[in-house]
Write a structure and sequence with these properties.
CATH superfamily: Flavodoxin domain
Radius of gyration: 16 Å
Number of helices: 5
Strand order of the largest sheet: 2-1-3-6-7
Number of strands: 7
Strand content: 15-25%
CATH topology: Rossmann fold
């Protein structure tokens, strides 16, 4: 049975190094695995969960498709820049709108811990940033806590593997080629 991978380019810009990384991963992955690619920049939805969980907010078609792809995936690959020590607002909006109770997790009466509805999935989080490389781990720490621990693991996804790349803005062509080779190798392995 072939592994199904959901590849999310979570940079809201149409052209970015995250897109280049996603392209490299996707090309290598398609050789051995089923991969569904989502570019956040192509998605048209209201990122604001206007009533929180107090009312049902109808999902736009792209969010419905994303949920189907997420539900059917064995492995998730999230590629995102770090902006101001966090993830881009539209990426946060995708999480708020699509990772919902009844789909990704469910609370039961008198139990403060959620029933995790995304169990059995693995993940890799690939983060890029422009700050100096020596600050990469420090800047990535809150992002990884949000994405991995408080989102993916909260919903039952296994603890994510991580790849941190930076500084992108001051990188050389040789450095970028090295990063692309690293991402291509991960794609060939479906990791």
């Amino acid at each position: 049975m072939s592994k199904t991978i959901l590849l999310l380019n979570a940079n809201p810009k149409t052209e970015s190094f995250a897109r280049v990384l996603a392209d490299a991963y996707e090309v290598e992955t398609r050789e051995q695995f089923t991969v569904h690619r989502v570019n956040l920049s192509d998605m048209d939805f209201n990122p604001n969960l206007v009533a929180g969980y107090d009312a049902i907010q109808p999902l736009e078609p792209c969010l419905e498709a994303f949920q189907r792809q997420l539900a059917g995936a064995d492995h998730l690959v999230l590629i995102s820049p770090i902006w101001w020590g966090g993830i881009p607002a539209k990426f946060k909006g995708l999480i708020d709108r699509a990772i919902l109770p009844g789909f990704a997790f469910q609370f039961e009466e008198n139990n403060p811990y959620p029933v995790q509805l995304l169990q059995g999935k693995t993940a890799r989080i690939i983060l890029t940033m422009d700050a100096p490389a020596e600050l990469l781990a420090e800047q990535a720490e809150p992002v990884l806590a949000q994405l991995d621990r408080f989102t993916l693991q909260f919903c039952g996804v296994s603890s994510a593997d991580t790849t941190l790349l930076g500084s992108v803005i001051s990188s050389t062509e040789t450095q970028r080629e090295s990063w692309l080779k690293e991402i291509q190798a991960l794609g060939r392995q479906g990791r």
